[in-house]
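Worked Example 4.2. Consider the chain below.
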Amino acid sequence: MNVNVRRRSYRYVGPADLKAAVGPGSGGHRIGSAADFTHWIAERAAAELLEPFTFVVGMDGVLRLAPRRSEHVACADGERVLSAGEISFIREADRWVADDVSNQSTGYCPDVVSWPAVARALDAIELGHPSCFTHQVVFRRCPGCQECAIVREDDFVCVFCGSDLPKEWNVDAAPPYDRRC
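Applying the procedure from the previous section yields the following structure tokens:
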């Protein structure tokens, strides 16, 4: 795989007011080791574990986790990321594993090729995981109306204006807009 693709980073492209609301230290919980994860997961209530969590992989390659309804930009302390999305954990025998991982982040709109960054972050904390995103979201910016769109069922047509969407990821090709993907 091309080194540039593996190290692609994503800037926040969501609503400016959400990024402006990010305060110092509001980021997600940094999970730099297996012990960090064990401590963090032990503090979660049973009801919390029934929903996926918000995650980002920071530019340092480390996983950050926050409650599901947290904004990805807050989880990332407003910084660029290597990937972002939602993640669920289950107990398998005597250990925790990541069983469902998506790149669903309308604030960063990461490409599906960001999976290796997620896998490396999970491997670093010794968490089992799937071999790819279990739910892949394909984000594109429309060259016609500049809206950020989600491609569904390989239909690369903008739902806002009907223009053809590019086959290659291009969300960061335009300035951020006060709209969500």
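The mean pLDDT is 91. The helical segments are 3-6, 16-20, 34-42, 72-75, 115-124. Compare this with Example 4.1 before moving on.
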